[in-house]
Design goal:
This protein is α+β, with helices and mostly antiparallel strands and 128 residues long. It has five helices and five strands; from the N terminus they run αααββββαβα. The strands form two sheets. The protein has a three-stranded mixed β-sheet with strand order 4-3-5. The protein has a two-stranded antiparallel sheet with strand order 1-2. It is globular and about 50 Å long.
């Protein structure tokens, strides 16, 4: 099994799902198309693709790293620690913050997917 075929199928799966998926979730979908693939092959492919900047890997507070296609556009998330809702924020807002930090500290930020944890407005109203 060629790694390029596994990589291509991973990209297709992430493009179709438009979601944050764990390596196990990706493996389960890919296994239907490539029955001979094993979970470690998928994990290694995801790590390789993350290093190349094709996918982002994030901790969304679920206990497992999740992967998302970078081609979906740079964006970031606010995750409620009470109800688990995930809000998406545009990169433009975060980008200004990144630019300011880089300029003040002579530092090039490599983060391409920022996750901030807190309490959403609804849970805040309910005392969360």
């Amino acid at each position: 099994m060629r790694t390029s075929s596994v990589d291509q199928i991973i990209l297709e799966v992430l493009a179709q799902e438009h979601a944050h998926l764990t390596s196990l979730q990706i493996f389960e979908v890919i296994r239907e198309r490539l029955p001979a693939v094993n979970q470690s092959t998928v994990y290694r492919a995801l790590e390789r693709m993350a290093k190349r900047g094709q996918v982002s890997v994030s901790d969304m507070g679920t206990g497992s790293a999740v992967y998302e296609l970078v081609a979906d556009g740079r964006h970031h998330h606010l995750v409620c620690q009470v109800c688990g809702c995930i809000l998406t924020i545009d990169h433009e807002e975060v980008g200004r913050f990144f630019t300011e930090i880089e300029a003040q500290n002579q530092f090039k930020i490599a983060t391409n997917h920022l996750i901030l944890f807190g309490v959403c407005g609804e849970c805040g109203k309910n005392g969360g």
